[in-house]
Amino acid sequence: MDAVSTADAATLAWLALLRAPRLGPRRLLPLLALQPDPQALLAQPPAETPAPVRQALAGADREAARRDLDWLHESGTRLLPIDHPDYPPLLRALPDPPLALFLRGDAGLLHLPQLAVVGSRHASRGGLENARGFARFLAGNGLAITSGLALGIDGAAHEGALERGPTLAVTGTGLDRVYPARHRDLAHRIVEQGLLLSEYPPGTPPLPGNFPRRNRIIAGLSLGTLVVEATLNSGSLITARLAAEIGREVFAIPGSIHNPQARGCHALIRQGAKLVETGAHIVEELGAQLGLVAATPDSGPDPAPADAPGEAMDPEHIELLELMGHDPVSADELVAKSRFSAAEISSMLLLLELQGHVSSEPGGLFNRLGKPLS
Fold first, then answer.
1. Rounded distance between C-alpha atoms, residue 152 and residue 165, angstroms
2. How many angstroms separate the CA atoms of 103 and 299, rounded?
3. DSSP element (H, E) containing 20
4. Does the residue 87 lie in any domain?
5. How far apart (Å, rounded) are the C-alpha atoms in residues 9 and 66?
6. Is-contact 254 262, C-beta < 8 A?
7. Most buried of 20, 227, 266, 353 (most Cβ within 10 A)?
8. Element (H, E) at 154
9. Structural domain range at position 111
């Protein structure tokens, strides 16, 4: 066999292991420790191999594996098995690291220091701004931003990172499809400027069980995990828990005690996560691991631009914003607190939202944003 066909044969064996039914890393890695050659493992499993595992190895879908190999060549996707020297050491330290990674984009990013940024799919406008602002700042200070390509916080983090540096997206599907579909353009940009990766072979659909497993890869690749917004039953808390279990840092951004999207972050802080208000707090914590002395000054998420010079705000609008405070509030509450009628409140809230001073949230609530008042 020439060198190319030898390499293809080894890749094909790894692909066949991935196509063995009901076998995951926890069952296969002990066998690979006994027989590191995947071709030999498939041909003659070690004597210690349980009978059900032998049957699963014998039932590996080799035809599907051959199609996977053709797809790798056609799509320019790389397969990185766990025994390769380029496999990330931090990920290999997991109790159940992926047997192999499918990679599209710059594989060298796997060896940059990474921070996971995760949070709610149903984030508030403020949460999205925080995710984007923190990711942009951290990417500009030497951290690659890793997330899961989901709607909400994940997407905002990827977008913010791409403004200043690289980002890695770990998917819960095969890399031949993009989920959610509305992130197709974002995924293409990540392939061009970052790295898209998955442990799942092509054709794998977005099954619910895939996403908690994806979360362990996000946590495993990263020096720490930042949770921006999360409810108490959010999958982001799984990522944070996994990060803590493997000895990585966990950071959380606090929010209003009245905001359900902040309760997961508050729970993490009570459990020992580090409360952060600016990206510099994270760089300070990870500085020794990053080899950084100090971060670029950071005053937190970028505020919205001020009104043009000479355009002073209406005093009644300033009065309403001061009444709103910094917690979500309904129009009815504002009517009860103020001297304005319901019609006046509705009109002012609409105008303030158009100007970027207020955001509307689910449930008929309104949030005051951090834009200067004059």
1. 20
2. 35
3. none
4. no
5. 10
6. yes
7. 227
8. helix 153-162
9. 107-290
pLDDT beneath 70, residues of the chain: 1-5, 291-311, 370-374
In tens, the pLDDT along 79-97 reads 999 999 999 999 999 999 9
CB 275 within 8 A of CB 344: no
Consecutive H or E run containing 165: none
Domain presence at residue 190: yes
**Which of 290, 325, 352 represents a domain boundary (last residue)?**
290
Cis peptide upstream of residue 372 (ω within 30 degrees of 0): no
* Tens of pLDDT, residues 135-178: 999 999 999 999 999 999 999 999 999 999 999 999 999 999 99
Are 32 and 177 contained in the same domain? no
The count of domains in the chain is: 3
Please name the residue ranges forming H helices in 2-124: 3-18, 25-34, 38-43, 51-58, 62-75, 89-92
Pair 341, 199 in one domain: no
126 alpha-carbon distance from chain centroid: 18
**Which CATH number does the domain housing residue 276 bear?**
3.40.50.450
**Residue 118, burial from CB neighbour count under 10 angstroms (0-12, 13-18, 19+):** buried
Shared domain for 153 and 240, answered yes or no, is yes
